[in-house]
Design goal:
426 residues; seven-stranded mixed β-sheet
Length: 426
């Protein structure tokens, strides 16, 4: 039996951050990772000679959570803001329009604005405007984004605006996304501003000036190597290729039968992982096209679920979004990231890449013949189900409980680590 202060199961970004905080506070920490690499979804891939993010390529600036960690790791000089080209939306009828400016997860802050009217029509915008006349308590107890928007603004805003944005960000329908995880503070702002639209504007006004998301020159995956360096310096025992078969309040048993005792707590992002998470395939294309140089659809598009002729859920024009990447890629070379769900995740690589080329051509509005494709790569992910059950005494961290996005995941991991340290000092 091996005894440590803390055992972290899973070396995704949550596990690495929690382990770092605990180790730097003087605790002995072991990390168990089933795969042979660190970082989980924060990882890289090589495509056409470029080292690219294979998972997250940006992070929300809210709360300054990720930026604080970046600065602690000595990476402040790598922080970059995206280009301000804006994002677009592919509608059910095939039109492609810019996303409304004053919105949060697609929820409009000004329902009768021209850019909202273009997407939901007069009837849909008028129904959403009724939100200002409905008492704030209506919908305030709803658990999900979908239920809240449906009650206050109607089905058309939900399906034509909110659903494609939420699906692009969280890979789920708004009916599956909890309000307090996806939009912290929205419920409280609804009460103080008396309307959902007012709440959206309040949260946008409260956000710090500048970009709502940021990235890192060289890619977000560079976080992992810096975290790993700190962990090694702090004496953390990192065991890759070592899967946990059982976790409880007293420790972890590995698949090989080794029992590791944790004197204080077990932090876990993966034990007894709930089944049923959404499957996601990310197809990355590197293309040679001078017609994409002017970013004809901004930094990318979100696709309304059910839009005909397009299988992708979203496309990011990464070289239009990140100036540093455009410089690295070189003249007329563009990086396109397309995300897929459902049956498309079962396609063999050649069929997925063919679909990605056709979808990119349709969404961006420029010809992309097969000869323009310099290289392609694929990553498959499974989004964890929310609200899974964990063994008594185990402190869960990661997407399954924190929600999607680096800001949410890192904030939760650090809060849990702080709780462990506080309990130990009592």
């Amino acid at each position: 039996m091996t005894e440590r202060d803390v055992i972290v199961v899973g070396a995704g970004i949550a596990g690495l951050v929690a382990a770092r905080d605990l180790a730097l506070a003087g605790l002995s920490v072991t990390i168990l990772e089933a795969s042979d690499s660190l970082g989980g979804k924060v990882c890289s891939q090589r495509v056409a000679g470029l080292t690219l993010d294979a998972g997250a390529e940006s992070f929300a600036t809210r709360g300054g959570t990720v930026e604080r960690l970046v600065r602690e790791l000595g990476m402040a000089d790598l922080l970059v803001a995206p280009q301000q080209h804006g994002a677009w939306l592919r509608l059910l009828d095939g039109r492609t329009l810019p996303l409304p400016n004053a919105s949060l997860l697609g929820i409009p802050g000004t329902p009768m604005a021209a850019d909202v009217l273009e997407i939901v029509g007069f009837g849909g915008a008028l129904r959403a405007q009724l939100d200002s006349l409905i008492p704030w308590v209506v919908g305030s107890k709803e658990r999900t984004i979908g239920a809240l928007v449906r009650r206050r603004m109607g089905a058309r805003v939900l399906e034509r605006l909110v659903a494609p944005v939420v699906a692009g960000v969280h890979s789920r329908h708004p009916d599956e996304i909890e309000i307090d995880l996806a939009a912290p503070g929205l419920r409280r702002a609804l009460k103080t501003r008396d309307s959902l639209a007012g709440a959206v504007l309040a949260l946008r006004d409260a956000a710090p000036p500048g970009a709502k998301v940021m990235g890192l020159r060289g890619g977000v995956h560079t976080l992992v190597s810096e975290l790993a360096a700190d962990l090694h310096s702090a004496g953390v025992d990192i065991r890759v290729g070592n899967r946990a078969s059982r976790a409880d309040s007293d420790g972890v048993t590995t698949e090989s039968g080794e029992r590791l005792h944790a004197a204080v707590a077990v932090l876990s992002s993966t034990p007894e992982q709930p089944a049923g998470g959404a499957r996601i395939s990310l197809a990355t294309l590197v293309v040679d096209s001078s017609e994409l140089d002017d970013a004809p659809r901004g930094t990318g598009l979100l696709v309304t679920p059910g839009a005909e002729g397009v299988a992708a859920k979203a496309i990011t024009h990464a070289t239009a979004k990140w100036q540093w990447l455009a410089e690295v890629a070189g003249p007329h070379r563009h990086v396109l990231r397309l995300s897929y769900g459902g049956d498309a995740t079962d396609l063999p690589d050649d069929e997925l890449f063919a679909s990605a080329r056709a979808d990119a051509e349709s969404l961006l509005g420029v010809p992309l013949p097969q000869s323009s494709i310099l290289d392609a790569a694929r990553e498959n992910w499974t989004a964890p189900s929310q609200g899974g059950r964990y063994p008594t005494g185990v402190l869960p961290i990661g997407e399954g409980t924190a929600g999607t996005g680096l800001a949410a995941v890192i904030e939760q991991a650090r809060n849990v680590a702080a709780t462990v340290l506080s309990q130990r000092s009592e």
